[in-house]
Amino acid sequence: MSLIEQAAQRLEQLRQAGVDIPSSPEEKVPEKTERRAPSTGRVEARENTVDLPRETSSPANDVPVSRRVDLDMDSLSRAGIIRPDAPRSRLSDEYRVVKRPLIDNAMGKGAAKVKDGNLIMITSALPGEGKTFTAANLAVSIAMELDNTVMLVDADVARPTLLKVLGVPPTRGLLDVLVDDTVDLAQVLLRTNIEKLTVLPSGTPHPRATELLASDAMVHLLEEMASRYSDRIIIFDSPPLLVTTEARALASHMGQVVVVVKAENTHVADVKHALAAVEACPVKLMLLNQAKPTKLDGYGYGYGYGYGYGN
Questions:
Q1: What does residue 128 show for φ and ψ, rounded to 5 degrees?
Q2: What is residue 2's predicted lDDT score, i.e. its pLDDT?
Q3: CA–CA separation, 251 vs 240, rounded Å?
Q4: Per CATH, which fold does 65-309 belong to?
Q5: Is the pTM of this model over 0.70?
């Protein structure tokens, strides 16, 4: 047996005995390589990995949010508007009396249920009788209630004065909602520093503003207001009844109408015509503005109200 044969035999014996003998280059088995799939641009999920949070659209970010404005209380007082933090006054007591039946009708607590009783229109026969003054004071007075919230709407789109009275600069509002169906009502509402009072301005001036007030879009908006804000009293400062036809169209969708009459100024015939224009409204009330109080009225009213209602 040759030396080569003896060496090969010896290696075979060692292998059989369990000794690890390196293979020769010819006998070496190639290592297995990991075969990877072609890149597809996708990342496969693996165990023990942490996924980064994805950006998602939050529902809260998609909900229109109203803007807040701060009313200057001193300016309100100078304009003759009630301020919630002021001491009790004759004016505030008078509006306590005025608002009570309106609130009862709006909340279904009156003698009979009033359809859309939470929609209240403040108007007059002619301009200059104090309807905007009345609407603002009534809204603030109702906002002082514990159980009611108020939306004050400047619906006198031809001659808007409500924001000026409140000391708020012009901004988007009612007309913008009527013209552009992508504008949500909540986007143009103004929350105020009077906790339960929001304001809807007349909006961006439009050449056909009065026609918009009598349009189908306005009718649909009123229906939405009455149902969407059923727990809220909505007060409309509207155009005078004998000057435009739009006020009459608006009145036909109201649950309650308050006709403001300026004492010793408005003719009886004009008052009768104004009342005839809102005949279809379920509840019609009249408010005498700028009446001169007598000494007896001042003393008796203050005492009687304080004792009878304790409010």
A1: 80, 15
A2: 64
A3: 11
A4: Rossmann fold (3.40.50)
A5: yes
